[in-house]
Amino acid sequence: MNPLRQLQTFGQSVWLDFIRRKILRDGTLQRFIDADGISGMTSNPAIFEQAIAQSDDYTAAIAFLARQGKKADEIYHILTVEDVQAAADLFRPVYEATQGQDGYVSLEVDPRLAYDTPGTVADARRLWAAVNRPNVMIKVPATKEGLPAIRELLAAGINVNVTLLFSVPRYREVAEIYLEALERRAAQGLPLASVASVASFFVSRIDTLMDALLEHHPCQEARALRGKIAVASAKVAYAAFTEYTQSPRFKALAAQGARPQRLLWASTSTKNPAYSDVKYVEALIGPQTVTTIPLKTLEAYRDHGRPAPRLTQNLDAAQAALAQLAELQIDLDAAMQQLEDEGVQKFIRAFAQLMDTLTRATAA
């Protein structure tokens, strides 16, 4: 069996971490859905920057909109909304067949609003209304300022993909926010079954940063932890997910139709060539999770993936690895805050580069 399809037998959904107009129109995405069982799609400002600036898929559309007098930010909004609508329509049969568990396409709020709570809420509402599809999620960064925005949006019935999660403590905060939002809806007599959310936990970037710290640590024992912290963090986060979904508090909400906010493994491409090119897919296979995979990793896993339920294995070793960091006087929380800050800035830079590209294109 196709290894990508086999992941479904372990309760894991596979979403594509990529979007581009060409694959929406030439049948490529439909083939991924039919042959590989791809059941959703994620995007971010960096993905759209690459799609628009590094292809000619959008040239005619940009020229048409420019002649209408549209500015760069208006063109970006129109192009991205059109792509997400088209992708959502392709995934709509998946959404209906899974009764709303899968079939989602994610679109991110303006990354410049990562530290602006009311601005994030307003932009998310604007995107939600513009796309106007039930199988869309609005991506909101899990910054401190993003958390209250996430609560407000979920309570309003807007599907949210909580993004840029790196640490277990912050994930626990996000899970608490999700419960609070559902409880608010329940208190108002609003339906819970229609609200969908995932918590996107970024993995490979953790090892990229932590490996550098461990490599240069004065204690020899630190070297043995290289390549282990990302997977260990994800396993401990999943244990927290299991804990909250089995709690009486969530079970009371589930009885009213609430869905669990699944963990989604993001940043699954391997950055270190010394590691397997499917390392972060292989290690994190488990029930009620999503793995979102970029094209190159998708093709690699289809070719030589070995599906097996590994996510719940060796939890004690994962917890011990994180505890050992404290013994080595490595501040994991501070490192994860650094990754969050860098992630926000990466998306802001990608957005700024795309605005420059569109400004030049409209002038031409």
Description:
The structure is a single chain. This protein has 364 residues and is α/β, with parallel strands linked by helices. It has a single domain, classed as TIM Barrel (Alpha-Beta Barrel). It contains 16 helices and eight strands. The chain has helices at residues 3-6, 21-25, 28-36, 45-53, 59-67, 72-97, 117-131, 146-155, 168-187, 204-215, 229-245, 248-254, 279-282, 295-304, 315-327, 332-363, and strands at residues 12-17, 40-42, 104-108, 136-141, 160-165, 197-202, 262-266, 289-293. Strands 1-2-3-4-5-6-7-8 form an eight-stranded parallel barrel, surrounded by eight helices. Strand 7, helix 13 and strand 8 form a beta-alpha-beta unit. Helix 4 (45-53) packs parallel to helix 16. It is globular, with a radius of gyration of 20 Å. The mean pLDDT is 96.
Entry summary:
The chain is an alpha/beta fold. The chain has helices at residues 3-6, 21-25, 28-36, 45-53, 59-67, 72-97, 117-131, 146-155, 168-187, 204-215, 229-245, 248-254, 279-282, 295-304, 315-327, 332-363, and strands spanning 12-17, 40-42, 104-108, 136-141, 160-165, 197-202, 262-266, 289-293. The protein has 16 helices and 8 strands.
